[in-house]
Amino acid sequence: MRPTLFMLAIATVLAGCQAGGSAMDGARQFGAGLGAAATAPLDDLNLRREYIPTVLLQAEANPYDLRNLTRCATIGAEIARLNEALGPDTDEPPAPDGSYLSERAADATAEAALDAVRDATTDFIPGRGWIRRLSGAEQHSRHVQSAVQAGRMRRSFLKGVGMQRNCAPPAAPAWFRPRGGSQR
Asked: Which of 62, 88, 84 is nearest to 157 (CA)?
């Protein structure tokens, strides 16, 4: 069943390539992610590890640290570092990318095809769960998730501190308007 799904996803992406420029973007996305999807078993064997940015490791060590964060500008800079590692916060509106529905559909198709490739390459490993535990891949995966959670928690904490200090965004949530002008 999986090979059929895999071939269907590939055929969908390749058929989309014939449709025009937006589908070509989906095909490029598929091609760019194919190597990572095909080598997904390396993650399970702990031969390749996901990189954890330093800012997230620092947040994991002490999410409520306020050293050197006495000004709105420094709080905003720390939030910018966290945004770089985590992506935009939920209070920020999505960036207008000007994409068309057909481009988003091509991207979704490419992502589905990559998921099918990733599933096909990891499904052949017998006892995959045990291999992940024994190789340390499962522990590293939990560490990555812990660091991401700590980074989100730190970003929320810093935005709350920014609000309390009457800072303007990005040192506070996007919806916050400082009273009588923000502090520096």
From this structure: 62
